[in-house]
Design goal:
The chain has 477 residues and is of the alpha/beta class. It contains 14 helices and 28 strands. Helix 1 (146-159) packs parallel to helix 2 (175-184), helix 11 runs antiparallel to helix 12 and helix 13 (450-457) packs across helix 14 (461-470).
Length: 477
């Protein structure tokens, strides 16, 4: 076993982001291993990493020559700043301080027994406080508020690492812009940046979207298809709305992240990939884990760093700068500005769609403005902060013809659903036509504006788009 410290290919450079209530910190992990018994006795190794694999296979972070050690014997993970050992179904098992374990937390100085080999575990940590940047942007994200300057500092710090990252924020806050900035400021900037919208791809196709498929792998697979992981090889893959990933697919994604190998649907071959993974969601993953909707081990694998991007209503002081970046010129080449009265309207609006909505309003205002300064009348109707959003479960008003249609739907449903059906199938048959009619009413009320319709329905825009495709409802109906 080699002596010097190494950086594990699985380790994300041993870095994590933590917040102790006084601001974010970078936590760097270096794990030292000393073999005190077995074929490799006397060997020492240090690994920078939050995941370290041990076994007799040469691709392990700690490769051993002991024949009583399985090829992939065990792994050590960092979870909430604690070290966690997991046996990987080894032949001869793993012991910690003389006790056989399948999973166990490790303390400094713990003695780990694998076959005839005994290893002393000596971890080290380095803490570094992150101070807010004095810059007003990172990539295409702009802001002068303390919250955004802290976000910029975090993004800048981790962009130079191989750190896996989860970006959390409401729709329209700029999660994809943050992911693109991470990529463009990393060593992978000259390689692909591939986006997968987990909320927009049907559950039946998401596996093919991620990992690809061979010709004939399933009905309709008339040719070979390269998946997103393979397409992003050497670069970054952005898994948008990771909270929408079907539960049954999550173990497969976890295996790919752990081994950095993909297997296309319909193929028996594994192919190595080298990607950095950045994920994003507007959902509460901690609650989903508690409810059994998201795998805890997958979360830990993705969330080496968790960065919260604040909503626009919590950083209104950023609105003038964002407006300045959005506004261009009008025909004559003169710069378009915002009058003080219009700016006050922008600052007092509720902005449920966050920065994306602000950009859309400003671009529309530029087109409507009679002069090169936007006035309040050019902004149209904005939702004031004091306005209350409509209740998510409410049905928008609809013409009498549509009300009559839903009555006909309800009558038909009563006849179609039979008692011999399983309750899940019966429920789906009953709900499908009602849900479709609801979607039609929703779009009609909001004149085809999907963003506004999603806000009224209390769901993410991409979730609404998926429902519209599922029920074959067009936005121009």
């Amino acid at each position: 076993m080699e002596q010097p410290a190494v950086s594990s290919p699985n380790a994300f450079h041993g870095t994590q982001i933590r917040d102790d209530g006084q601001g974010p910190m970078i936590v760097s992990h270096r794990q030292r291993f000393v073999v005190v018994a077995g074929a490799d006795k006397g060997a020492e190794r240090e690994v920078d990493g939050t995941r370290v694999t041990i076994g007799s296979a040469p691709n392990n972070d700690i490769p051993l020559t002991d024949r009583t050690v399985s090829r992939n014997h065990c792994e050590i993970l960092v979870r909430n700043d604690r070290y966690f050992l997991r046996d990987l179904s080894s032949t001869n098992g793993t012991q910690v301080n003389g006790t056989p374990v399948v999973e166990a937390f490790l303390s400094p100085g713990a003695r780990v027994q694998l076959g005839d080999t005994e290893i002393v575990f000596e971890p080290k940590k380095k803490w570094e406080r992150i101070n807010a940047d004095d810059t007003d942007h990172f990539g295409e994200l702009y802001g002068t508020s303390d919250s955004m300057r802290t976000v910029f500092a975090l993004l800048s710090k981790i962009s130079a690492t191989e750190l896996g990252c989860v970006l959390i924020g409401e729709t329209g806050t700029g999660k994809e812009l943050a992911a693109r900035a991470l990529h463009s400021n990393s060593d992978r900037r000259d390689k692909p940046f591939v986006v997968v919208d987990c909320g927009a791809v049907s559950a039946t196709l998401i596996e093919s979207e991620l990992f690809g498929h061979e010709k004939g792998a399933f009905t309709g697979a008339d040719k070979h298809r390269v998946g997103a992981f393979e397409a992003a090889d050497g670069g970054t893959i952005f898994l948008d709305e990771i909270g929408e990933l079907p539960l049954e697919l999550q173990p497969k994604l976890l295996r790919v992240l752990e081994r950095m190998e993909i297997k296309r649907l319909g193929s028996s071959l594994h192919e190595s990939v080298n990607v950095r993974v950045v994920a994003a969601t507007h959902r509460n993953l901690a609650r989903m884990i508690k409810n059994g909707e998201f795998r805890e081990d997958l979360y830990y694998r993705l969330a080496e760093a968790v960065i919260q991007i604040p909503p626009l209503r919590d950083r209104r002081s950023d609105i003038p700068l964002i407006a300045q970046q959005v506004l261009g010129t009008k025909g004559t080449g003169e710069v378009v500005t915002v009058s003080p009265e219009a700016m006050e309207m922008l600052k007092s609006a509720r902005w449920p769609g966050n920065v994306r909505e602000l950009r859309n309003v400003l671009r529309r205002a530029v087109a409507m403005a009679q002069h090169n300064q936007i006035q309040p009348d050019d902004l149209g109707k904005l939702s004031a902060e004091t306005d209350k959003p409509p209740p998510p479960a409410s049905w928008p008003a609809a013409p009498t013809s549509q009300l009559a249609a839903v009555d006909r739907v309800n009558a038909r449903v009563t006849v179609d659903v039979e008692a011999h059906l399983p309750i899940k199938e019966a429920r789906e048959r009953w709900l499908a036509p009602v849900e479709k009619e609801y979607l039609r009413r929703l779009l009609h009320t909001h004149e085809g504006d999907v963003e506004a319709a999603a806000e009224a329905a209390g769901i993410h825009r991409k979730s609404l788009e998926r429902l519209l495709r599922q029920h074959d409802v067009r936005t121009d109906n």
